[in-house]
Write the structure tokens for this entry.
Amino acid sequence: MTIRRYLRLLPVVPSVLLLLFFLLAPVAWSFYASFTDAALSGRAARDPHWVGLDNYVRMFSDDAFPLAAWLTVVFVAASAVLGQNVLGLLIALLMTHSRKAVSSWVGTAVVAAWVLPEIVAAFAAYAYFNRDGTLNQMLAFFGGQGLDWLYTFPLVAIILANTWRGTAFSMLVYRAALADVPHDISEAALMDGAHGWQRLAFITLPMIRSSIATNLMLITLQTLAVFTLIWVMTAGGPANASTTLPVLAYQEAFKFGDIGYGTAVASVLILLGVVFGAVYVRLLRDQRP
Amino acid sequence: MRFATVLPVVAALLAAAACSSTPPTAANKTLKIVYQKSDSFTALDAVMQDAKKEFEAANSSVTVNLEPIQANDDDYGTKLALAQRSPDTAPDVFYEDTFKVRSDVDAGYLLKLDSYLQKWDDWSTFNEAAKAAGRADDGGIYAVPVGTDTRAIWYNKAVLKKAGISVPWQPKTWEDILSTARAIKASDPTVIPFNMYAGKGTGEGTVMQSFYELLYGTDSTLYDEKEKKWVVGSQGFTDSLAFLKTLYDEKLAASPAEALDANVWKKVFGEWFPQGKLAATVEGSYSPSFWQKGGPYEWAGYEQDMGVAMFPTRNGQEPGGVSMSGGWTLAVGAKSKNAELAFKFLTTALNKKNALAFDINNSQIAVRTDVASESSYLAANPFVKDVSELVKVTHYRPATADYPRISTAVQVATESVITGKQSPEDAAAEYDATVRKLVGDDKVLER
């Protein structure tokens, strides 16, 4: 009996092992390294020491960290929660009400940014916001005076770029969710005299609530981890004005060779992801009776 | 639920299987050679290709695997260090920046070469200062230099003449630089009069080709070699930052946005100088390698148009000028399984013929005396003599294990100043605090 039970579990063993080795092990190692002074070079590279909470203490006395944590929250809130999410929902709503040709054109245009590899999208955004870039050339064409966007408003440019790149995902999620909203309910509401926005607020949104929560969770976690886009566009500069936590972790670990401190920053990032995740899971759960 | 008790056993078995690696076959030995290569730096790659042919012809049972890393200096250092962390990926011979030697020796990445060097006749042709570049804190030699460099002011004679400044130009003080730069700006506002790197974007270039030329001309220093302590609170440090602030505030240098672009040096060499948009900058003795035939920014007119001057001390005090030297080395990995062969490859790559080719193609200052006296080396470009003479006033970075992080702290200070985030005084104070945090209070010297 018991043998058969084990045999039945056998097929999951590879995937569990893979998960352990490739997902949990690096995370565990990263947590462990954050309590050491591990480095890329110097004596600490040969013989790292346990330094307890030193890296975490240093983090809060270091000006760069609170700034990076704040920028990360702003970046996620503005480009994922507001930008991608709201814009995605709006486009999806408009598409359900527009002609097929228009909606497929819009859909293709939005998805185009999403299918680009991150590095390509990053270079495209760089070419757009650059001092001699497309945006300024267009402004010049209309007689406007261009700015050095990546230098003057680095975070704004990155938020716009990430919104541009990620909106398609939200749009697709909401397109699918809206298609599932039964027509007769909206029609009944229409018969009762509900206005457009009333139907949206009281009928449509509550009905797609679980899709909203799922979408928010996925895009939040994705945006928390955005690195390439920022690295290519501004490399975290100028003077740390666009250094989010992933950029800070990379700089500390690989540019300055301070693996211990870098992994401590990465650990905070993981915790931040867990907190966001927990909130959204909570939202999802409340939905079901 | 008993699944949970089985899992660790399976995991342990798997881990054990992963650890027992098979020994390498002894019959055909391979050497792994790691070095830097980029669009603008192919001189070393050419030398390595030649050395591989030469070495394999002489040692038929050995295969040389060349593994160039495509990266800038910063990323190259990171990738190399990551490879060195495990014996499976560690190279046998690698290209190593002189200022990382001590730090990487501490990390246990480099093999001590003393006993090998004793048996290598050519070692006596290396000049003494160059030999010291590969010496670690224990007095042993761990790396062999491939060339060295100096820094000077490179200026475009045509641009200066247009502004009514007589050439050859040799500023005697910082004030001379500023007044000339202002004159150039006044005569043609579209020209960048005197660029100096700043910020983290240009990395080590910011300190080597800009900040240290200032700092070491103020009678201050970064590190006290005698006391083995880092200097903080010096007036010279603040004054150097203030000089950069003046350059950037008065728009005598590139715009801060351009300066923070990691690729600004490509504009300096590839666009601004050849197009006459830049009057002068502080750059390395290797500058002609970008412009000479076969270089990444070929410019036939550079020999006539460009001039070179010594960077002055602040008030023209002795010795009259400042330069910085660095350079790169070849080293053998401490974890190499074929150390004897690896060293033999190193000597092939750095024999007279290959060293000469590298020094000429990369505009390096020769470290082998037999190469330095070679007529083809002296004729390689019209600036060899001038930049070689700067060795007399040159400084070397304190290549301690802490150095890379201190260097970053200096870069941060320059960035804060040119972007207007901090005053020179505040940026210097923050630098002092960072240094104290990095090395500890007992390793700093208030001055």
Notes: Confidence is low (pLDDT under 50) at residues 1-26 of chain B. Chain B touches chain A through 37 residues (CB under 8 Å). The longest helix of chain B spans residues 3-19. Chain B is about 45% helix and 15% strand.
